[in-house]
Amino acid sequence: LAMDVCAYATTREPDDLDHHSLLAITPPPTTTERTTTKRTTTELTTVATTEMTTKMTTEVTTGTATTPGNTTSGTTPPPTTPPPCECPDGEKGIVDPDGNCHCPPDCLKGKKAVIVNNRYKCPDHPPCGEPPNCVVGRKGPGCSQPDVQPCSGRRELWTGTCCDRRPPWWNAGDPHLETLDGIKYDYYDIGEFWGCKSVFNDFGIQFRYFAYQRASLTGGVAIKAGPSVLSIMTVNTSDPKEFPKLRIDGMLVNLTAHVGQKAKLNNETVVMEIQTTSSSVSDPTGVALISLQYESGLTVTAYIRHSQAMGRQYLNLLFTPTVAFKGHTEGLCGVMDNDPSNDLKGPDGELYNDTVQFADSWRITAVHNNSGLRGSWSWNSSNFHSDDVMDLSYNDPNYVPMYSLDGIGDVIVAKATAACSSLGLTGTILTSCIYDVAVTNDTSMTAQENLQQDCPDQCSGKGKCVNSTCQCMTGWSGDSCQLGNCTDCSAKHGTCVKGFCKCEDGWEGVTCEQKATCYNVNNCTSPIHGICQRTDQCRCHDGYIGRDCSIIPTCSNVSYCSGRGICIDYDVCKCQKEWTGNDCTQFSCGSLDHCSGQGRCVALYKCDCDSGWAGASCAVPDCTGVNQCSGHGACVSSDACQCYPGFQGVTCGDVADCASLGNCSEHGVCMQEKQGANLTCSIASLCYF
């Protein structure tokens, strides 16, 4: 937690031995020993922190600080009470040093003014606000607790409990595409393309688009799962319940026999699940849902659908990458690095301005022998199996894509507009829906856009959206089917994470019920040196290395970690919490949340804050650049004000004017809803501060 003026003063416990800190912890001395022994490192750190925290608390509470060598002695004389005077409203004022009558001001929230230096002054607002109106980043009693909004990621697009997963990438419709950094575009040509590939993460997806009328839809997909290759090809059929063709390493899979079952691939690091959807009344066009869950957290889900109007199947694909893919993706999905400006990059590194040219650059024309078989994946050619035959609709030389509704009859367009509008769709989703329905003349196409509208998380690729609610596959739960269940995971030695059983150290196997042994590595030498993590695989404690943790490394070239850390490999230090650098000689301000990333650590427990930030850990926003909100607002971020009722403007220095709103009919307080927005009337009892 950030230790700043917002936090309660507490005595810090000895630091854990994690990747940020290492403190030498010794057993407490006996009663006799306590009178003679020196303080241990832990005791010194705890005392230093306690003294620092107490000092900080005293400074915040009293507004003063004692400078070393500048102390006062003797008895402080009692304060004198200034003479009273009469105020215009009948209140009693005080005569200030200039001889003027100083009257008490009206303070916010009914607080009474106090006398400071023979003048009345309203009590200062706590630097972190007062509940329920804490400044940004604080919450709880007295606004004393940090409040990290879920996965804000400093404006990056992340989700998941640990903010380690990107929101799903959706390839749907004709198709309607979007890069992982958020650039939306349509591409209606046909053929085979790289959907997304990451050589760094040993993962790739290839698409096949087929033509219908003057648009295209996804008819096939090839996916890499470790050394295995999966391909799904939709079929021409009038039967809405017929399954597509699924191949794993070239072998055709009987989907009927695998519905509701888990198939494990790549040494059980990839789990495939299949669910039928054709029986659903709310989704009559659904055929099946085929989902791949990777142990790394990656998810790929194919939704197979059937169109009665087209007399064939098509599929939509959902891809949820993890943080490991950042900066390591290319293809139609773009470069995932939170920089949309470089998303439209082709395979040769050229940056395109035209989305159609960009998509064309990722077309696949090359083939190779044994394609689609185990261990045959190629980063330069098609990975579909030779039996995954494409008909003329995938490569018709006379096909010309249509990017507008020109030539579509008004009646059909009106029908499409009515069907899509009735679902409450808006924005680009509405536009895409109208196009899909009009071009295919199939109103069942609205189902896929409704999925995006009603269930933004796409049910995490582990369920289907019905009436704005996710119906999860067997083994998955949560509002967006984000929780994987493990019915066979050992309750004693394992934890279920994303459908995979994660074993504790010393245990292994699919259910974490097998005891690991390390006989071939000398049992990791001793419990002091390391522990047996998996069979014949040790996890060495800090200060020991080697296959059996028997080697003690030295750090002579980095000053032996300067006595502020421990040597964990040759010339590699693991520093104590308050120190950093190769030799642990630089201040880190670890106890001050590393200055919150908004300042520099200049000494032990001392941050030099960037402009716009204040507090011991630079976590408190400062509004010096906007006149401290003129005393009429709360500083909620760096130079950003939230004005109190009755005030407006960037600095909250302007009186709010609601004349155009009848001055709130004298039943409300004129306030600004948000900076730059129109003025609105708010019921007084609902106003903040």
Automatic annotation (TrEMBL):
Phylogenetic lineage: Eukaryota, Metazoa, Cnidaria, Anthozoa, Hexacorallia
Disulfide bonds: 540-549, 575-584, 643-652
Record's keyword annotation contains NAD: no
Protein name listed in UniProt: Uncharacterized protein
InterPro entries: Dev_Signal_Modulators, EGF, EGF_extracell, VWF_type-D
VWFD domain segment(s): 167-370
Composition skew (Pro residues), residue ranges: 76-86
Annotated region (Disordered), positions in chain: 19-40, 58-87
Low complexity bias locations: 31-40, 58-75
Transmembrane segments: none
Keyword Repeat: no
Organism listed in the record: Desmophyllum pertusum
Keywords: Disulfide bond, EGF-like domain, Signal
Residue ranges of domain EGF-like in the record: 520-550, 551-585, 619-653
